[in-house]
Amino acid sequence: MEEMLRSFFLTLAKNQSANRWAKRYGLRLGAQRFVAGETIPDAMQAVKELNSIGMTATLDHLGEFVADEAEARQSATDCIEALKAIHEHEVLSTLSLKMTQVGLDISRDLCMENMRSILDVALAYGIVVNIDMEDETRCQVTLDIFDELRKDYPNVMTVIQAYLYRSLDDVLRLAGEGASLRLVKGAYKESEKVAFPDKADVDSNYIKMMEAHLLSSGFTAIATHDEKIIHHAKEYIANHQIAPDKYEFQMLYGIRANLQQQLVSEGHPVRIYVPYGNDWYGYFMRRLAERPANVSFVLRGMVH
Ligand SMILES: Cc1cc2nc3c(=O)[nH]c(=O)nc-3n(C[C@H](O)[C@H](O)[C@H](O)COP(=O)(O)OP(=O)(O)OC[C@H]3O[C@@H](n4cnc5c(N)ncnc54)[C@H](O)[C@@H]3O)c2cc1C
User: Which CATH code is given to the segment(s) 35-279?
Assistant: First the structure.
C-alpha cells in the first residue's frame, strides 16, 4: 500500500495541469509546512529564524522542468535575486537550484549560459551554489555540467543519490577529485533497471558513499532525516576525527525540527533546505511520496 501511494504521488509530481493550478492558487493543501512562502521576504524571514537558532540555510527558488526559454531566463534572474538578498541581508545561506529550472530541457547551451551568470554573481558574493540532482535521465548530463563548471567555479557543488546503482562509482570518482557533494537517498520515481528497489539496499549504499566521501578532501553534506544513518555518521566523524569544516548535516525545512535542533546542540553544523516561490507543487508531491502519512496535511488543508 505504502509503495502504491509513493508511486501515486511521484506520478502526480509530474502532472503539468495540476502544477499550473498550484501556481495560480498559491500555497495550498498544507504545503506551507514544507515551503517557507512565495516571496523573497518570506524566505529571508525563514532564513533569519534558522540563523538565530544556530543553523545555516540553502535557499531554493522553486522551479523545475521548464520548457520555455523566457521562463528559464526568468528563473536565472530569480536565482540572482535570491543571491542578492542573501548578500544584502547578510544571512548565512547558500543557493540550491535545478538544471531543468534554468533550461536544461530546452538546450544545454541555454542552461550553461544561465548557470554561468548565476555563478558569476555567487562567486563575487562568496556564496556556494548547489546543483540539485533530478531524475536519472538527467543524471549524466548534470554531472557533466558540474565537471565543466567546477573548472571555473570553486563555489559549486552537486548531489549524489544513493538509490542509483551508479552512485558509489560517481562518489568514488568525485571524492578522488576533491569535489564537494551533498549525499541524499533520492526522491524520484526510478525503475529497477537503474535504482535499488529495496530501501535496505539504498540505506547501505548511502553509508558506503558517506564513509568514502567523508575521508576525501571534498566537503560532505549528509542530507538525510534518517536517525540510524545520522547516528552512524556521528560515530564515523568522531572515530575518524573529521573536522567540522569538512562536513555538515542537512535537512529539509519543516521536517524533523527536533532532530535538527539536537544536532546543533551537540555541536554539529546543520543546514536547512528552504524552498520558496509559487512553483511548489512538484516539491510538495515528493514530500508526500516520502511519507504518505503526510497526507493528513493535505486533508486538513482541504478542510480549511
Ligand atoms: C537538504 C536536502 C536536499 C535534498 N536534495 C535532493 C536532491 O537534490 N535530489 C533528490 O533526489 N533528493 C533530494 N533530497 C531528498 C532525498 O533524496 C530524500 O527523498 C529525503 O531526504 C527523504 O529521505 P531520508 O534520507 O530523510 O530518509 P527516509 O528513510 O525516507 O526517512 C527517514 C525518516 O525521516 C522522516 N522523513 C523523511 N521524509 C519525510 C517527509 N517528507 N515528511 C516527514 N518526515 C519525513 C521520517 O521520520 C522518516 O522515517 C534532499 C533531501 C535533503 C534533506
Answer: 3.20.20.220
- Interval 239-286: pLDDT, tens: 999 999 999 999 999 999 999 999 999 999 999 999 999 877 778 878
Q: How far is the CA of 226 from the centre of ligand 1 (A)?
A: 8
Residue 225 Cα to ligand 1 middle (Å): 6
The backbone torsions φ and ψ at residue 247, rounded to the nearest 5 degrees and listed phi first, read -155, 165
3-state secondary structure (DSSP) of residue 250: strand
Whole-prediction pTM value?
0.93
Q: Is 255 in the pocket of ligand 1 (CB under 6 A)?
A: yes
Q: Is the CB of 290 under 6 A from ligand 1?
A: yes
C-alpha cell at 173: 570518482
**Cβ neighbours of residue 229 closer than 8 Å, sequence gap 6 or more:** 203, 206, 207, 210, 222
CB atoms near residue 124 (< 10 Å): 11
Q: Which atom of ligand 1 is nearest to the CA of 289?
A: 41
Write down the domain spans for the chain: 35-279
| Cβ contacts of 149 within 8 Å, gap of 6 or more | 112, 115, 116, 119, 156
Is pLDDT larger for residue 295 or for residue 33? 33
Q: Which residues are catalytic?
A: 132, 182
- What is the rounded CA–CA span in Å between residue 78 and residue 263? 32
Mutate-to-test residue for ligand 1 from 32, 33, 226, highest number of ligand atoms within 8 A of CB:
226
**Longest pairwise C-alpha distance within the chain:** 52
Residue range 196-233, pLDDT digits in tens: 999 999 999 999 999 999 999 999 999 999 999 999 99
